[in-house]
Design goal:
The protein has about 120 residues and is an all-alpha fold. About 75% of the residues lie in helices and about 0% in strands. The protein contains five helices and no strands. Helix 2 runs antiparallel to helix 3 and helix 3 (about 40-65) crosses helix 5.
């Protein structure tokens, strides 16, 4: 049985625990960028990424309200948390892509005004 995939997944989960990599990547993308020359598609993509990140944080906080089972061991708990985090990320990305919450659109319009695109 090849467990190299599981090992790399666990390593990635450990990195995420030390600091939210997605938040850092989003911050780096936004803080160092000059959006005055950005196309409409690039602006909307950044806004959708922010909306997905916002939803991800909201879903994670919602998951904290669900009591955990006392039957799971710590080893199982670590893997369950990893897959739960991955599921939340994917659901957040899909929700931002498919829904019309309005957050991305509002940010997009504000960025267009601020950067005169």
């Amino acid at each position: 049985m090849d467990i190299s995939g599981l090992t790399s997944a666990y390593s990635q989960y450990a990195e995420n625990l030390s600091g939210n990599a997605k938040a850092e990547a989003l911050n780096n993308k936004v803080s160092g960028a000059d959006y005055s020359k950005a196309t409409d598609e690039e602006l909307m993509e950044v806004c959708k990424e922010f909306e997905a990140y916002f939803l991800e944080q909201m879903y994670k906080e919602m998951m904290k309200t669900i009591p955990e089972s006392e039957m799971t061991s710590s080893a199982n708990s670590t893997l369950v948390n990893y897959y739960k985090d991955e599921m939340i990320k994917e659901v957040s990305a899909q929700t931002a892509k498919q829904s019309n919450m309005g957050l991305a659109q509002s940010l997009y319009e504000q960025m267009k005004r601020n950067y005169q695109v």
